[in-house]
Amino acid sequence: MSMHKLLKLNARRALRGRWGPAAAVTLMVLAIGFLFNLFEGVLNITLGVAPFDDVMMTPNNLFDDLANTSALALSVAFATAALAFVIMTPLGLGVQRWFYRLGEGVSDEISTVFEFFGASRLFWKSLLLCCSVWVRSALWSVLFLLPGSLVIFFSVMVAGRSGTNRESFAAAGGILVGCLLLALGMLFAIIWCSRYYLARYYLMENVRLSVRQAVGKSIASTKESRCSIFLFELSFFGWYLLCLLVFPYLFVYPYHMTARGLYARYLMTAAEQPPPAGSGFPEGAGLPEQAQHESWSE
Fold it and tell me: DSSP secondary-structure letter at 282?
């Protein structure tokens, strides 16, 4: 059995008898996210901000409406997004830690998902870690997407100035090549940015680590596993398609987060104590009876 299948098997074992609390945590996250959307809607109504502009003056046709880009509408959207970031980032880290602990066989109280709000040091560190990973990922993505974007840009310029069929054909070929480069660049960017996959987990394991140290340890520990991480996450794509039916999300999200936590623990352990050659991923790995953790009250 492959490592990814064993991770998923062990995740289902860890969730056995705990699906109720796992679904409750998932519902809570969804409800809080919905509250931010509701808050933005109420704020728009209170301030008289229309969500869309009827630029073609066709009130009976909604398909030609554009998003409202007025200064007030953008201010409301930015304020709501900033508030959501400040609240959902520490909460998301707490939820990730809850499922990480669940994979160890430890069923914490649901209230522990708010642990990162309990100390200002942890709260700000969670925000800084998220910003650091986002900025680093964005910069690497720009670098990987730049070649394809430039090829498309110059091909479009040539197409606009072309006067012969040969030039038009060359421009069309350039656009096609640019699109292929853009797709490859996106693929490589996703794989490369997997180097930050473990940053949150390292912070969970040792809250004394700085953001830079957590990111650095993640980069070092995922050096040989980035393609495997990409394939592991991709394997859940079909499951998330089922979430279009809404209800399956209560199963898919806990399943994915628990399996991800098990994989993270395996990668971090392997980085510190490399397994013997050919030993593979043992069935039941990542499911110790108990784990000692540093106090989060500091």
Answer: -
